[in-house]
Amino acid sequence: MCVASRKRLRGWTCFRTLSAVSTASTAMSFEWPWQYNFPPFFTLQPNVDTRQKQLAAWCSLALSYCRHHKLYTLDVMEAQESPVFNNKKIERKLSIEAIQVVFEELRKKGNLEWLDKNKSRCLVMWRRPEEWGKLIYQWVSKNGMVNSVFTLYELSNGDDTEGEDFHGLEEWMLLRSLQALQTEGKAEIITMDDGKGVKFF
């Protein structure tokens, strides 16, 4: 497959946020856990054991929701008004402070990174870079593309990868995934005329 013949596009990274997901589409397609319709779930409990179970449930819900809608960046203020933290049916929403506690718990688990000192925006990793790297390399091997060169755009937005889990992966996560493969000696990130690319081994 000739690299020169493939389509390339500059500035292709687009951050999809919680506000881009409509309540209607979410309600129809996402399966909510039972706790979501339980009012006390939206107030952090004082008992230590109960709170730990509650936070674990919130972390699981947040990651599942982001995975379902392929969300990679979160804004704390937007989050409070999004369906995941605001159940309009029972008129309950998680407070900003509680959302930050949930996000901090996700950070401790390695699923989130803050983008600013004020902890108002963050990157969410519902699948870790190493896991993405494994999926990408499996696709490369399965299609006999070892020793091939790709642009980052081709990997995440090209026609060849449509239907793959990593199709639409944002650039920052794609780069981390490829860096993980590079560490394993399975890929090398290279500089191309119109940005970065990668060669697989």
SSE layout and pairing:
Blueprint: H1 23-29, H2 48-69, E1 73-75, H3 76-81, E2 86-87, E3 92-93, H4 96-108, E4 112-114, E5 121-124, H5 129-142, E6 149-151, H6 152-157, H7 171-183, E7 187-192, E8 195-200
Antiparallel strand pairs: 1-5, 2-3, 4-5, 6-8, 7-8
Would you write up a description of this structure?
It is a single chain. Strand 4 (112-114) and strand 5 (121-124) form a beta hairpin. The protein contains 7 helices and 8 strands, in the order ααβαββαββαβααββ. The strands form 3 sheets. The protein has a 3-stranded antiparallel beta sheet with strand order 1-5-4. A 3-stranded antiparallel beta sheet has the order 6-8-7. The protein has a two-stranded antiparallel sheet with strand order 2-3. It has helices at residues 23-29, 48-69, 76-81, 96-108, 129-142, 152-157, 171-183; strands at 73-75, 86-87, 92-93, 112-114, 121-124, 149-151, 187-192, 195-200. Helix 2 (48-69) crosses helix 4 and helix 5 packs across helix 7 (171-183).
